Fold this sequence. Notes:
By secondary structure, the protein is an alpha+beta fold. It has helices at residues 15-21, 29-40, 79-93, 97-112, 126-132, and strands at 10-14, 44-48, 54-58, 63-64.
Amino acid sequence: MQALLSGCRWLKLNQQKLVEVDSASTQSLLRGAQELANRIGVQTVIVTRGAEGAVAVTADGSAICPPVRTISLADSVGAGDAFSAVTLLGILNGWSLGTTLQRATAFAAAVCEIVGAVPNDVAFYRPHIEAWQR
């Protein structure tokens, strides 16, 4: 795995994958993510946790875990891709890690409230885009 991630600064994976690559994470998600960051030399490990949101851990042990809002789950298809897309948008736009995680989590939650991975109505995106421009 080290060779695959050489030069990587950010790593996003779900909690199940973290457990697969780092058995220490079964005892402590934060410790496992930090140890993985240090072992492979990445700046930040982001772990998505389904309905429990996400957490970001840096190599120095700093952790960010935005609040999770209650949603009416319709379909979780597309939530991971939605989260990843907004995370990349945040990185490219220089948003803080906390802002990026909060926005990615909120957008993924909104996707879970619709059926299907892609909204049919472009109006779905409007409130998110407006909030991201502030």
